[in-house]
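Dear support,

I submitted the protein below through the web form. The confirmation email said the job was done, but the results page showed an empty box. After a refresh the structure appeared. I'm attaching both so you can tell me whether what I see now is the final result or a partial one.
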Amino acid sequence: MKQKNVIAAALILFGLSMFFDAAMAQTIGVRRWRRSPRQQHHVQRVQRAPYLGLYFGNNLKAEQNFVGGMLNLPVGRFWEFAPGVEYSLTGAEAKYDRWQFNGDLVFKPRPLGFIYFGGGLAVEYLIPEQADSRTNFGGNALVGMEFGRAPMKFFVQGRWTFLQETSFSVMGGLSLALR
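What the results page shows now:
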């Protein structure tokens, strides 16, 4: 039953991304202007800034909420490196604290954003109350959408995390430009 929910959420996210992508029709990161009537058009490339993002989400398999932060660093015209950390809000009855560290490479077909997808490394760090800590390594696969323009953007994202078990998380948040 939970697998059907994950597939349904992924299809809804994909459908919304196609709808909003067609509706918004953002620029591709190139702005044109004319200096004088006799001169050619000149092209100015828009410089992409690094962003600091804060988000809140829910791991649907573990039924846990989490908060996190990430840094989006442009590494090419269409690529960003997005290291991040999140803390699970496990509640008072939990017998451990759970942290997850992510290092994802994100591909944005449009340099200024809107729909994106990617993947990378996931490291889960569990701190139990009465035993040694445990670290698990795995991977992430993600798809998301951005809304807004610099210096502030909103985003929603779906992420599959492949650790000892596969889980699906839905999150949303805010990114602020650092320059």
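Response: this is the final, complete result; the empty box was a page-load delay. The chain has a mean pLDDT of 79.
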